[in-house]
Amino acid sequence: MVKIKLCGLTRRCDIKWANELHPDYVGFVFAGSRRRVTDGQAAQLRKILREDIPAVGVFVDEPIDHVAALVRQGVIQMVQLHGAEDEGYIRELRRAVSVPVIQAFSVRSPEDIQAAGKSSADFILLDHGTGGTGQAFDWTLAAALDRPYFLAGGLHPGNAAVAAELRPYAVDVSSGIETEGVKDRQKMVEFARRIRHTF
Ligand SMILES: O=C(O)c1ccccc1NCC(=O)[C@H](O)[C@H](O)COP(=O)(O)O
């Protein structure tokens, strides 16, 4: 079964709907974005999120001390690196805390897929651009990968079944489950239904 990550949750109702749908992961964005949450907001949201759903902290070139503090406080259970973080950053992060790391790659060419394949991160995530853009990359490029990956960028209920048929490890969605900039329960339900019913 393809796993589901619902990203960019910001409100208590988003968490309530996620708890009902029980995705495999939810994402809190700590990077500069209209979806950014403060540490305090994320801590409050984590408290009401089902205990068995890991919260993924999404960062762009964030100082490691800050990322590690959020892990130690129990606010996040996984780290997603969405900037220009390199192997040295991942090594240093692992010395600080022991949680699964997802490294995001912006995919424009077969070379980007090759680079992603070499990452030492626990998981790689293939995306269109800087993150949360609502745009898809050319998914046919992913066929060259010989490791599991999160498929992200421009997913929505209308293309969820096609995405699931590529058999990624997980699908990651944000813009495509929003209406007027906030999460939309109906779209969240429909997205999860279409992913789960593909099998
Ligand atoms: O979501 C954001 O605003 C964001 C900002 C900066 C870095 C990463 C960000 N999101 C990361 C995600 O994991 C998104 O779910 C992923 O990029 C897909 O986004 P979308 O195309 O909107 O579904």
Summarize the structure.
This protein is α/β, with parallel strands linked by helices.
Label this structure with key terms:
199 residues, alpha/beta, TIM Barrel, 7 helices, 33% helix, globular, binds the ligand O=C(O)c1ccccc1NCC(=O)[C@H](O)[C@H](O)COP(=O)(O)O, isomerase, N-(5'-phosphoribosyl)anthranilate isomerase
Describe the structure.
The chain is an alpha/beta fold and 199 residues long. The chain has one domain: TIM Barrel (Alpha-Beta Barrel), CATH 3.20.20. The protein is 33% helix and 21% strand. The protein contains seven helices and ten strands. The strands form two sheets. The chain has an eight-stranded parallel barrel with strand order 1-2-3-4-5-6-7-8. A hairpin with a 2-residue loop joins strand 9 and strand 10. The longest helix is centred in the C-terminal third of the chain and has 12 residues. The protein is globular, with a radius of gyration of 16 Å. The mean pLDDT is 97. One of its GO terms (biological process) is L-tryptophan biosynthetic process. GO terms for molecular function: phosphoribosylanthranilate isomerase activity. It is an enzyme of class 5 (isomerase).
Q: Which percent band covers the strand fraction?
A: 15-25%
CATH topology: TIM Barrel
Largest β-sheet summary: 8 strands, parallel, barrel
How many domains comprise the coordinates? 1
Gyration radius over CA: 16 Å
CATH superfamily: Aldolase class I
Q: Share of helix among residues?
A: 25-40%
Global mean pLDDT: 97
Structural class, from secondary structure content? alpha/beta
What is the level 1 CATH name? Alpha Beta
Bound molecules: ligand LARABZUK
Helix and strand run: EHEHEHEHEHEEHEEEH
Q: What's the total number of strands?
A: 10
Keywords: Amino-acid biosynthesis, Aromatic amino acid biosynthesis, Isomerase, Tryptophan biosynthesis
InterPro entries: Aldolase_TIM, PRAI_dom, RibuloseP-bd_barrel, TrpF_fam
Protein name: N-(5'-phosphoribosyl)anthranilate isomerase
EC number: 5.3.1.24
